[in-house]
Amino acid sequence: MARIGIYGGTFNPPHAGHMEAARQAMALLKLDKLLLMPDGEPPHKEMPQGAPTARERVELLRLAAEGLPGVEVSELEVRREGKSYTSDTIAELKKYHRDDELYLLMGTDMFLSFLQWHAPEEICRRATLAVLQRQEKDPRLQEQLQAQAQTIRKKLGGKVKLLKNDVLPMSSTNVRRMLTFRAQGDMIAPAVLEEIRRRGFYGVNRDLRGLSMEALEEEVIRLLDPKRVPHVLGCRDTAAILAAKYGADVTDAARAGLLHDVTKALPPELQLQVCRAYEIPLDEFSRENPKTLHATTGAWVAREIFGENEAVFRAIESHTTGCPYMNTLQKIIYIADYMEPNRDFPGVEKLRAAVEKDLNRAVLMGLEMTVDMLRQQGRRVARASLDAIAWLKNEK
Ligand code: FE
Ligand code: FE
User: Structure pTM?
Assistant: First the structure.
Protein backbone atom coordinates (compact mmCIF):
# COMPACT_ATOMS: atom_id res chain seq x y z
CA MET A 1 0.00 0.00 0.00
CA ALA A 2 1.57 3.23 -1.18
CA ARG A 3 0.84 6.78 -0.11
CA ILE A 4 0.16 9.00 -3.12
CA GLY A 5 -0.29 12.75 -3.10
CA ILE A 6 -2.13 14.82 -5.71
CA TYR A 7 -1.17 18.46 -6.10
CA GLY A 8 -3.28 20.35 -8.64
CA GLY A 9 -3.01 23.93 -9.85
CA THR A 10 -2.51 26.07 -12.93
CA PHE A 11 1.28 26.22 -12.43
CA ASN A 12 1.40 29.34 -14.56
CA PRO A 13 4.38 29.37 -14.36
CA PRO A 14 5.69 26.64 -12.06
CA HIS A 15 7.86 28.37 -9.47
CA ALA A 16 9.99 27.79 -6.39
CA GLY A 17 6.95 28.15 -4.09
CA HIS A 18 5.27 25.17 -5.76
CA MET A 19 8.41 23.05 -5.56
CA GLU A 20 8.96 23.92 -1.91
CA ALA A 21 5.33 23.00 -1.14
CA ALA A 22 5.81 19.70 -3.00
CA ARG A 23 8.99 18.93 -1.07
CA GLN A 24 7.37 19.67 2.28
CA ALA A 25 4.22 17.71 1.45
CA MET A 26 6.36 14.67 0.50
CA ALA A 27 8.10 14.81 3.86
CA LEU A 28 5.15 15.68 6.13
CA LEU A 29 2.79 13.09 4.62
CA LYS A 30 5.56 10.52 4.08
CA LEU A 31 4.42 10.12 0.50
CA ASP A 32 5.81 7.49 -1.83
CA LYS A 33 4.80 9.53 -4.82
CA LEU A 34 3.45 13.01 -5.51
CA LEU A 35 1.54 13.73 -8.71
CA LEU A 36 1.65 17.32 -9.90
CA MET A 37 -1.50 17.83 -11.90
CA PRO A 38 -1.89 20.99 -13.99
CA ASP A 39 -5.47 22.09 -14.75
CA GLY A 40 -6.79 21.61 -18.24
CA GLU A 41 -7.59 24.57 -20.47
CA PRO A 42 -10.49 26.54 -18.97
CA PRO A 43 -13.18 26.19 -21.69
CA HIS A 44 -14.07 29.84 -22.23
CA LYS A 45 -11.56 31.76 -20.20
CA GLU A 46 -9.46 33.97 -22.41
CA MET A 47 -5.79 33.30 -21.64
CA PRO A 48 -3.56 36.38 -21.43
CA GLN A 49 -1.28 37.04 -24.38
CA GLY A 50 1.90 34.97 -24.29
CA ALA A 51 0.58 32.51 -21.71
CA PRO A 52 1.60 28.90 -22.32
CA THR A 53 -1.10 26.37 -23.20
CA ALA A 54 -1.95 23.53 -20.82
CA ARG A 55 0.44 21.18 -22.69
CA GLU A 56 3.20 23.76 -22.52
CA ARG A 57 2.62 24.17 -18.80
CA VAL A 58 3.07 20.40 -18.48
CA GLU A 59 6.47 20.72 -20.18
CA LEU A 60 7.53 23.57 -17.90
CA LEU A 61 6.37 21.61 -14.88
CA ARG A 62 8.39 18.55 -15.96
CA LEU A 63 11.50 20.73 -16.06
CA ALA A 64 10.64 22.21 -12.65
CA ALA A 65 10.12 18.78 -11.06
CA GLU A 66 13.36 17.29 -12.41
CA GLY A 67 15.56 16.25 -9.54
CA LEU A 68 12.71 16.02 -7.03
CA PRO A 69 12.62 12.31 -6.17
CA GLY A 70 9.12 10.81 -6.16
CA VAL A 71 7.54 13.82 -7.86
CA GLU A 72 5.84 13.18 -11.22
CA VAL A 73 3.72 15.26 -13.57
CA SER A 74 0.28 13.84 -14.43
CA GLU A 75 -1.61 14.83 -17.58
CA LEU A 76 -4.89 13.38 -16.37
CA GLU A 77 -6.71 16.74 -16.21
CA VAL A 78 -4.98 18.26 -19.22
CA ARG A 79 -6.07 15.34 -21.39
CA ARG A 80 -9.70 15.46 -20.30
CA GLU A 81 -12.02 17.32 -22.67
CA GLY A 82 -14.49 19.91 -21.42
CA LYS A 83 -15.25 20.65 -17.80
CA SER A 84 -13.13 18.75 -15.35
CA TYR A 85 -14.12 17.95 -11.78
CA THR A 86 -11.69 16.96 -9.05
CA SER A 87 -14.14 14.23 -8.01
CA ASP A 88 -13.76 12.61 -11.47
CA THR A 89 -9.98 12.86 -11.29
CA ILE A 90 -9.90 11.18 -7.89
CA ALA A 91 -12.32 8.46 -9.04
CA GLU A 92 -10.13 7.72 -12.04
CA LEU A 93 -6.93 7.66 -9.97
CA LYS A 94 -8.55 5.30 -7.50
CA LYS A 95 -9.07 2.79 -10.31
CA TYR A 96 -5.32 2.46 -10.82
CA HIS A 97 -4.53 2.77 -7.12
CA ARG A 98 -7.20 0.56 -5.56
CA ASP A 99 -5.07 -0.41 -2.58
CA ASP A 100 -3.20 2.86 -2.16
CA GLU A 101 -3.95 5.82 0.04
CA LEU A 102 -4.65 9.06 -1.83
CA TYR A 103 -3.92 12.48 -0.36
CA LEU A 104 -5.45 15.49 -2.09
CA LEU A 105 -3.34 18.57 -1.43
CA MET A 106 -4.98 21.97 -1.36
CA GLY A 107 -4.38 25.49 -0.17
CA THR A 108 -6.36 27.07 2.66
CA ASP A 109 -8.74 29.01 0.34
CA MET A 110 -9.64 25.84 -1.52
CA PHE A 111 -10.19 23.97 1.72
CA LEU A 112 -12.48 26.65 3.18
CA SER A 113 -14.70 26.48 0.06
CA PHE A 114 -14.56 22.68 -0.19
CA LEU A 115 -18.26 22.12 0.56
CA GLN A 116 -19.17 24.15 -2.53
CA TRP A 117 -17.13 21.87 -4.80
CA HIS A 118 -18.75 19.32 -7.09
CA ALA A 119 -19.48 16.07 -5.16
CA PRO A 120 -17.28 16.69 -2.09
CA GLU A 121 -18.55 13.47 -0.47
CA GLU A 122 -17.24 11.47 -3.44
CA ILE A 123 -13.81 13.02 -2.96
CA CYS A 124 -13.83 12.33 0.78
CA ARG A 125 -14.77 8.70 0.21
CA ARG A 126 -11.58 8.11 -1.78
CA ALA A 127 -8.98 10.58 -0.54
CA THR A 128 -7.69 12.34 2.55
CA LEU A 129 -7.69 16.14 2.33
CA ALA A 130 -4.26 17.58 3.11
CA VAL A 131 -4.23 21.33 3.65
CA LEU A 132 -1.07 23.28 2.90
CA GLN A 133 -0.64 26.68 4.47
CA ARG A 134 0.21 29.22 1.83
CA GLN A 135 -0.44 32.38 3.81
CA GLU A 136 1.10 33.76 6.96
CA LYS A 137 -0.35 31.91 9.91
CA ASP A 138 -2.85 34.15 11.64
CA PRO A 139 -4.80 32.76 14.60
CA ARG A 140 -8.21 33.55 13.12
CA LEU A 141 -7.41 31.54 9.99
CA GLN A 142 -6.27 28.59 12.16
CA GLU A 143 -9.65 28.64 13.96
CA GLN A 144 -11.52 28.67 10.64
CA LEU A 145 -9.45 25.74 9.39
CA GLN A 146 -10.09 23.71 12.54
CA ALA A 147 -13.83 24.43 12.34
CA GLN A 148 -13.95 23.45 8.67
CA ALA A 149 -12.03 20.23 9.40
CA GLN A 150 -14.62 19.35 12.07
CA THR A 151 -17.51 20.01 9.68
CA ILE A 152 -16.00 17.86 6.95
CA ARG A 153 -15.29 15.01 9.37
CA LYS A 154 -18.83 15.12 10.81
CA LYS A 155 -20.89 15.85 7.71
CA LEU A 156 -18.98 13.83 5.13
CA GLY A 157 -17.00 11.41 7.26
CA GLY A 158 -13.95 12.81 5.52
CA LYS A 159 -10.34 12.57 6.65
CA VAL A 160 -8.49 15.85 6.99
CA LYS A 161 -4.85 16.63 7.70
CA LEU A 162 -3.90 20.23 8.43
CA LEU A 163 -0.21 20.37 7.56
CA LYS A 164 2.18 22.42 9.64
CA ASN A 165 4.44 23.42 6.77
CA ASP A 166 6.66 26.49 6.62
CA VAL A 167 5.16 29.12 4.42
CA LEU A 168 7.00 30.35 1.38
CA PRO A 169 4.60 33.05 0.21
CA MET A 170 4.87 33.25 -3.55
CA SER A 171 2.08 33.82 -6.04
CA SER A 172 2.21 33.10 -9.75
CA THR A 173 0.89 36.61 -10.39
CA ASN A 174 3.90 38.10 -8.60
CA VAL A 175 6.26 35.70 -10.36
CA ARG A 176 4.90 36.95 -13.70
CA ARG A 177 5.32 40.57 -12.54
CA MET A 178 8.92 39.86 -11.54
CA LEU A 179 9.56 38.27 -14.95
CA THR A 180 8.39 41.48 -16.61
CA PHE A 181 10.65 43.51 -14.30
CA ARG A 182 13.54 41.10 -15.10
CA ALA A 183 13.99 40.63 -11.39
CA GLN A 184 12.76 37.05 -10.89
CA GLY A 185 15.96 35.99 -9.08
CA ASP A 186 15.63 32.38 -8.00
CA MET A 187 11.82 32.30 -8.02
CA ILE A 188 12.03 30.12 -11.13
CA ALA A 189 14.36 27.15 -11.65
CA PRO A 190 17.09 27.85 -14.24
CA ALA A 191 15.88 25.13 -16.66
CA VAL A 192 12.31 26.48 -16.49
CA LEU A 193 13.47 30.05 -17.03
CA GLU A 194 15.55 29.02 -20.01
CA GLU A 195 12.54 27.32 -21.60
CA ILE A 196 10.31 30.36 -20.86
CA ARG A 197 12.87 32.55 -22.64
CA ARG A 198 13.32 30.12 -25.54
CA ARG A 199 9.56 30.01 -26.16
CA GLY A 200 8.96 33.66 -25.28
CA PHE A 201 6.23 32.90 -22.74
CA TYR A 202 4.80 35.73 -20.62
CA GLY A 203 6.24 38.27 -23.03
CA VAL A 204 9.73 37.90 -21.53
CA ASN A 205 11.45 38.69 -24.83
CA ARG A 206 9.40 41.73 -25.75
CA ASP A 207 11.00 45.16 -25.82
CA LEU A 208 8.77 47.43 -23.72
CA ARG A 209 10.72 50.63 -24.39
CA GLY A 210 9.03 53.53 -26.14
CA LEU A 211 5.51 52.06 -26.22
CA SER A 212 2.65 54.21 -27.45
CA MET A 213 0.44 55.66 -24.73
CA GLU A 214 -2.27 53.05 -25.41
CA ALA A 215 0.15 50.12 -25.36
CA LEU A 216 1.80 51.44 -22.20
CA GLU A 217 -1.59 51.70 -20.50
CA GLU A 218 -2.35 48.07 -21.36
CA GLU A 219 0.99 46.85 -19.98
CA VAL A 220 0.68 48.86 -16.77
CA ILE A 221 -2.87 47.66 -16.09
CA ARG A 222 -1.62 44.07 -16.34
CA LEU A 223 0.98 44.77 -13.65
CA LEU A 224 -1.28 46.60 -11.19
CA ASP A 225 -3.55 45.29 -8.50
CA PRO A 226 -6.97 45.72 -10.23
CA LYS A 227 -8.19 47.84 -7.31
CA ARG A 228 -5.48 50.40 -8.08
CA VAL A 229 -6.31 50.91 -11.77
CA PRO A 230 -8.80 53.81 -11.33
CA HIS A 231 -6.31 55.65 -9.11
CA VAL A 232 -3.53 55.29 -11.66
CA LEU A 233 -5.68 56.41 -14.61
CA GLY A 234 -6.94 59.32 -12.49
CA CYS A 235 -3.37 60.26 -11.66
CA ARG A 236 -2.39 60.15 -15.34
CA ASP A 237 -5.29 62.42 -16.39
CA THR A 238 -4.78 64.86 -13.52
CA ALA A 239 -1.04 65.04 -14.19
CA ALA A 240 -1.63 65.81 -17.89
CA ILE A 241 -4.09 68.59 -17.05
CA LEU A 242 -1.73 70.13 -14.48
CA ALA A 243 1.21 69.89 -16.90
CA ALA A 244 -0.72 71.91 -19.49
CA LYS A 245 -1.70 74.43 -16.82
CA TYR A 246 1.74 74.85 -15.24
CA GLY A 247 3.94 74.48 -18.33
CA ALA A 248 5.45 71.00 -17.90
CA ASP A 249 5.77 68.37 -20.65
CA VAL A 250 2.28 66.86 -20.99
CA THR A 251 3.54 63.54 -22.38
CA ASP A 252 6.09 63.09 -19.60
CA ALA A 253 3.39 63.93 -17.05
CA ALA A 254 0.93 61.39 -18.48
CA ARG A 255 3.59 58.65 -18.71
CA ALA A 256 4.87 59.31 -15.19
CA GLY A 257 1.27 59.28 -13.93
CA LEU A 258 0.64 55.92 -15.59
CA LEU A 259 3.85 54.37 -14.30
CA HIS A 260 4.13 55.92 -10.83
CA ASP A 261 2.70 52.87 -8.98
CA VAL A 262 3.83 50.20 -11.46
CA THR A 263 5.58 48.14 -8.73
CA LYS A 264 3.10 48.95 -5.96
CA ALA A 265 1.52 45.47 -6.02
CA LEU A 266 4.78 43.83 -4.88
CA PRO A 267 5.12 42.96 -1.19
CA PRO A 268 8.12 44.40 0.72
CA GLU A 269 10.36 41.34 0.20
CA LEU A 270 9.90 41.61 -3.57
CA GLN A 271 10.53 45.39 -3.47
CA LEU A 272 13.88 44.50 -1.93
CA GLN A 273 14.44 41.81 -4.58
CA VAL A 274 13.93 44.41 -7.35
CA CYS A 275 16.48 46.62 -5.57
CA ARG A 276 18.99 43.77 -5.54
CA ALA A 277 18.34 42.94 -9.21
CA TYR A 278 19.02 46.53 -10.31
CA GLU A 279 21.70 47.12 -7.68
CA ILE A 280 19.79 50.13 -6.35
CA PRO A 281 21.63 51.66 -3.40
CA LEU A 282 19.33 51.88 -0.36
CA ASP A 283 19.42 54.37 2.47
CA GLU A 284 18.60 53.37 6.02
CA PHE A 285 15.06 54.80 5.88
CA SER A 286 14.15 52.69 2.84
CA ARG A 287 15.60 49.54 4.33
CA GLU A 288 13.48 50.03 7.45
CA ASN A 289 10.35 51.15 5.56
CA PRO A 290 10.20 48.90 2.50
CA LYS A 291 6.58 49.99 1.93
CA THR A 292 7.78 53.33 0.62
CA LEU A 293 10.18 51.58 -1.75
CA HIS A 294 7.66 51.35 -4.60
CA ALA A 295 8.55 54.93 -5.59
CA THR A 296 12.20 53.96 -6.04
CA THR A 297 11.57 50.59 -7.70
CA GLY A 298 8.84 52.14 -9.87
CA ALA A 299 11.25 54.81 -11.14
CA TRP A 300 13.87 52.19 -12.02
CA VAL A 301 11.35 49.93 -13.76
CA ALA A 302 10.05 52.95 -15.72
CA ARG A 303 13.57 53.74 -16.93
CA GLU A 304 15.13 50.27 -17.30
CA ILE A 305 12.13 48.34 -18.62
CA PHE A 306 9.91 50.97 -20.25
CA GLY A 307 12.78 53.19 -21.41
CA GLU A 308 11.42 56.40 -19.86
CA ASN A 309 13.57 59.52 -19.64
CA GLU A 310 15.24 61.09 -16.59
CA ALA A 311 12.40 63.58 -16.03
CA VAL A 312 9.89 60.74 -15.68
CA PHE A 313 12.35 58.81 -13.51
CA ARG A 314 12.75 61.72 -11.07
CA ALA A 315 9.02 62.42 -10.90
CA ILE A 316 8.19 58.81 -9.99
CA GLU A 317 11.08 58.54 -7.56
CA SER A 318 9.88 61.49 -5.46
CA HIS A 319 6.14 60.80 -5.63
CA THR A 320 5.65 59.53 -2.07
CA THR A 321 7.99 61.73 -0.05
CA GLY A 322 8.72 64.78 -2.20
CA CYS A 323 12.23 66.23 -2.06
CA PRO A 324 13.94 69.63 -2.00
CA TYR A 325 14.44 71.41 -5.34
CA MET A 326 11.49 69.54 -6.90
CA ASN A 327 10.95 70.59 -10.50
CA THR A 328 7.49 71.29 -11.92
CA LEU A 329 6.93 67.72 -13.15
CA GLN A 330 7.94 66.29 -9.77
CA LYS A 331 5.48 68.61 -8.01
CA ILE A 332 2.74 67.67 -10.46
CA ILE A 333 3.14 63.91 -9.96
CA TYR A 334 3.39 64.35 -6.19
CA ILE A 335 0.15 66.33 -5.99
CA ALA A 336 -1.75 64.45 -8.73
CA ASP A 337 -1.14 61.23 -6.79
CA TYR A 338 -2.55 62.97 -3.71
CA MET A 339 -5.72 64.59 -5.09
CA GLU A 340 -6.73 62.79 -8.32
CA PRO A 341 -10.53 62.37 -8.51
CA ASN A 342 -10.65 58.91 -6.87
CA ARG A 343 -8.95 60.13 -3.68
CA ASP A 344 -11.34 60.70 -0.80
CA PHE A 345 -10.14 61.85 2.62
CA PRO A 346 -10.78 64.83 4.91
CA GLY A 347 -8.98 67.83 3.44
CA VAL A 348 -8.80 66.61 -0.18
CA GLU A 349 -11.13 69.42 -1.31
CA LYS A 350 -8.80 71.99 0.23
CA LEU A 351 -5.91 70.46 -1.68
CA ARG A 352 -7.87 70.50 -4.96
CA ALA A 353 -8.75 74.17 -4.44
CA ALA A 354 -5.10 74.99 -3.70
CA VAL A 355 -3.86 73.19 -6.84
CA GLU A 356 -6.11 75.43 -8.95
CA LYS A 357 -4.32 78.54 -7.69
CA ASP A 358 -0.78 77.74 -6.63
CA LEU A 359 1.14 74.51 -7.27
CA ASN A 360 3.81 75.20 -4.63
CA ARG A 361 1.25 75.93 -1.94
CA ALA A 362 -0.63 72.73 -2.76
CA VAL A 363 2.55 70.62 -2.58
CA LEU A 364 3.48 72.25 0.73
CA MET A 365 -0.02 71.50 2.10
CA GLY A 366 0.24 67.89 0.97
CA LEU A 367 3.65 67.43 2.56
CA GLU A 368 2.52 68.99 5.84
CA MET A 369 -0.62 66.85 5.95
CA THR A 370 1.48 63.70 5.44
CA VAL A 371 4.02 64.66 8.09
CA ASP A 372 1.24 65.46 10.60
CA MET A 373 -0.45 62.13 9.91
CA LEU A 374 2.76 60.12 10.25
CA ARG A 375 3.60 61.87 13.53
CA GLN A 376 0.09 61.19 14.90
CA GLN A 377 0.54 57.54 14.04
CA GLY A 378 3.98 57.53 15.65
CA ARG A 379 5.65 56.61 12.36
CA ARG A 380 8.95 57.86 11.05
CA VAL A 381 8.99 60.79 8.65
CA ALA A 382 11.27 60.70 5.62
CA ARG A 383 14.12 63.21 5.72
CA ALA A 384 13.27 64.15 2.12
CA SER A 385 9.79 65.34 3.17
CA LEU A 386 11.12 67.60 5.94
CA ASP A 387 13.75 69.04 3.59
CA ALA A 388 11.10 69.61 0.93
CA ILE A 389 8.93 71.53 3.42
CA ALA A 390 11.84 73.71 4.54
CA TRP A 391 12.78 74.39 0.92
CA LEU A 392 9.22 75.30 -0.16
CA LYS A 393 8.78 77.67 2.82
CA ASN A 394 12.02 79.37 1.92
CA GLU A 395 10.95 79.72 -1.73
CA LYS A 396 7.84 81.72 -0.81
FE1 FE B 1 2.50 55.48 -4.86
FE1 FE C 1 -0.29 56.43 -6.30
Answer: 0.91
